[in-house]
Amino acid sequence: MRYPSKLIRGQILGDRYLVAGLVGSGGSSHVHLGEDLRLPGKRWAIKECVTEDLYGTVQAEAELLIALNHRRLPRVADFIPPDEDDYSYLVMDFIEGLTLDRYMEARGGVIPGDTLLLFAEQLLEVLQYLHQHRPPIVYRDLKPSNIMLTPDNELMLIDFGIARRHRMDAGEDTVKLGTVGFAAPEQYGSGQSDHRSDLYGLGALLLYLATGGQTSGWSAGMERRLEGRVPEPLIPVLRRLLRPRPEDRYESAAEVLRILEGVKPDRSAGERKNEPLVERILPQGKTSIVTMMGTASGLGTTHASLAAARFLSRYGRTAWVDYAPESPVYERIGALAEAAGRRAPSEGADGPLEVNGFDCWKRPGSGSLADLAGRYRYIVIDMGTGAYEGAAERFSQGDIPMLIASGADWRMEETLVRLRRCGYQPAGGWKIALPLAGSQAAELLRRTLGSKEVYTLPCQPEPFATGGEMEPVLKNLFVSILEKGGGRNKGSFLQRKKR
Q: Which leading EC class covers this enzyme (predicted)?
């Protein structure tokens, strides 16, 4: 979103909703987690929009959702009109789970045909409900980031920003809206969107998921590409859903549902009918701690730790902690947040700062992170160079202790000396990362130490970036906590200071 958020953690909105943290941001809004002060334990999603000339659009979304009642749609609890800065707020059900884009990413782009069939049936169910209204309600923006998968294997549509009621007298859409690659051709000037536009969007979405995100448009030879990826009877259904002309597609969601009733699921891929798909990717468990410490200053320990926190935040709620007692990094991040128009904690407060999907904290005075453990799935601890009392011992207590070292030939002796001083043991589960080093340097250190746990970190100038060469390395480094979903929680990091 091009406007900064006005909400900060701990703020109370509308004398009722306690802001608990930022969930995500999109092109037109921020979404925060809110706790209901009148109904203890009830959580809401607070959608924050800058209305300006869009007040009618946001109000129309609220009115549209209030009028709907379906288990695959969020309920709207409250609408707070624009304030003096034109910020308005929509309070709706908070949906636990993963968006489909994150689910596909966590699956490595491979989604079993049985699961695709389940998704198709559920989305057709909610489209049938929307289209049966008079006039029909057209969603117009089916895409992975607008669909949530809950731990109960239920899909939910979570953004109604461009949905509208179909106007029979209009020749074409007044405003061309929709996401390129998923929107039907008529949404971009060739006619007026109607319920068949959503059927096209469904076909594009399913094809995108079936091909691991490679394409959402039908092309020559697609039937062969889909063999083994989707149930065979689903292939001609996708082909017809993606016809360029609305009149060549199916007439209704109900018609497609009737066809899919005869398609038998194929469970050969190992998916079980009632297996919780979300927990299979993000199993519930204890907090996992990644400790990162540099063998010398200037090696990029902070850069690597921020990249690690950004990566892990896509798999669960993540905190980054500036743990070295005299480190200025937390304050610098706060200054950058303020310069970018994001509110930082008031003077004297220690956090958190919300940065690119994760929370940044300053080291607690006691050194214990017990207060953070129950709130986060992952905690990444930047320990600097560890030149302070107790650092080496606490470093070893991480679920993944990672030393950042130099791969330069002329610093190899320095690296080995520091490893000995830190108490390095090849069997201790420690990982060693060499920023910007070549494969030969990593192999030399592996042979010298007798350990396979030596990795090179490729160049990534922006630590908050996603994708690129860094991503597969981070996934390999953290595979144990991503698969097991929980850490040991041992040692003094998570112990409360005795009074």
A: transferase
